[in-house]
Amino acid sequence: MEVDLCFVMDCTGSMKGYIEGAKNSIKEVAEYMAKMEPAIKIRVGFCGYRDHHDTNRLQIFDFTNSCDEFKNNLSNVPATGGGGDGPEDVLGGLNAAVHMSWQNPIRVLLHIGDFPPHGRRYNNAADDYPDGDPNGLTAECVLEEMRSVGIHYFFVKITNETATMIRIFQGIIGEYPVFDFETAKPEDLVKKFFEAACSAITTAISLRE
């Protein structure tokens, strides 16, 4: 079986530990999947997002079948930016990921973030873009395109700030697994990422059978 696995991650300042966790777990994921019968071949990709006013708003590394190349790419991803408000360019990151070079029949997108997109529908806190994404993206258009090209969406929940986003997204594309990292200790992140990625892949495979 051939799998495309894409990590879509908030890369603002608060996410440093999670970037390291993803980087250090992906090789273990690939090696574990390769030992399964039948063997599972994985290409891995990455789309990091920050906020609209940030330098390097999006950092994209297209799919590769080299775990070492993937880890080297992530070594060039700083956790920086984000500004004074909570919401980030979530929709921009997801939209960019949808347009990466997906090609394998099993497509898994694992999204990791601690804040929702911009817009009053997601939160009542301070928001530099209360009317929503300044580029006109909506959750409906992004998620429906994601579904139309066969990408399975999974979310890693880090804070309760994303609870409303999860509910809205599920209202658009239906129920999907949410991995709860809220109480994860830094030393447990590699294990948690490994478990989440393997679970997402096996779930996506079972949905095709």
TrEMBL record:
It comes from the Eukaryota. Keywords: Secreted, Signal. Pfam families: VWA_4. Gene3D superfamilies: von Willebrand factor, type A domain. It is found in: Secreted. Its main location: secreted. InterPro entries: HMCN1-like_VWA, Thr-specific_kinase-like, VWF_A, vWFA_dom_sf. The keyword DNA damage does not apply. Residues 4-197 form the VWFA domain. This is VWFA domain-containing protein. It comes from Glomus cerebriforme.
